[in-house]
């Protein structure tokens, strides 16, 4: 599971998630250990400035975030295009 302390990172996570389901962001509490997200920590940014984490433990859903604004279609498409470019270069940017 992926979790973050920042709204912007949560929005990117929702927008880049695979599948056709409605994008959702939940307010959660971890129930166990978690670690820095390997996609961003020290691979792209020194430390963990996005405060993004991964866990294999369940997350307790406290609430659903509503009325959040996603990135513009142009910004989202630019990100998707960049991810495709990285993939063609043999770089798996998102694990």
Outline of this structure?
This is NAD(+)--rifampin ADP-ribosyltransferase. The protein has helices spanning 7-16, 73-88, and strands spanning 2-4, 25-30, 35-36, 52-54, 59-65. The chain has 95 residues and is an alpha+beta fold.
What does this structure look like?
- This protein is α+β, with helices and mostly antiparallel strands and 95 residues long.
- Helices cover 27% and strands 22% of the residues.
- It has a 3-stranded antiparallel beta sheet, with helices on one face. Strands 2-5 form a two-stranded antiparallel ribbon.
- It is globular, with a radius of gyration of 14 Å.
- The mean pLDDT is 88.
- It comes from Candidatus Blautia avicola.
- InterPro entries: Arr_sf, Rifampin_Arr.
Range of helix content: 25-40%
* Low-confidence blocks of residues: none
Structural class: alpha+beta
* Element-level helix/strand string: EHEEEEH
Strand content: 15-25%
The biggest sheet, with number of strands, parallel, antiparallel or mixed sense and barrel status, is: 3 strands, antiparallel
If you compute it from the alpha carbons, what radius of gyration comes out, rounded to the nearest whole angstrom? 14 Å
- Compute the separation of the termini in Å: 12 Å
Strand tally, please?
5
Order of the strands making up the biggest sheet? 1-4-3
- Quick check: average pLDDT? 88
User: How many distinct helices?
Assistant: 2
Shape: globular
Helix and strand arrangement:
Blueprint: E1 2-4, H1 7-16, E2 25-30, E3 35-36, E4 52-54, E5 59-65, H2 73-88
């Amino acid at each position: 599971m992926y979790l973050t302390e920042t709204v912007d990172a949560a929005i990117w996570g929702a927008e880049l998630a695979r599948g056709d389901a409605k994008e959702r962001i939940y307010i959660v509490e971890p129930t166990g250990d978690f670690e820095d997200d390997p996609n961003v920590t020290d691979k792209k940014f020194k430390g963990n400035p996005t405060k993004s984490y991964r866990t294999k433990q369940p997350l307790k859903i406290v609430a659903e975030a509503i009325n959040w604004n996603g990135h513009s279609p142009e910004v989202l498409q630019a990100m998707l295009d960049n991810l495709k470019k990285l993939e063609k270069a043999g770089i798996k940017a998102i694990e």
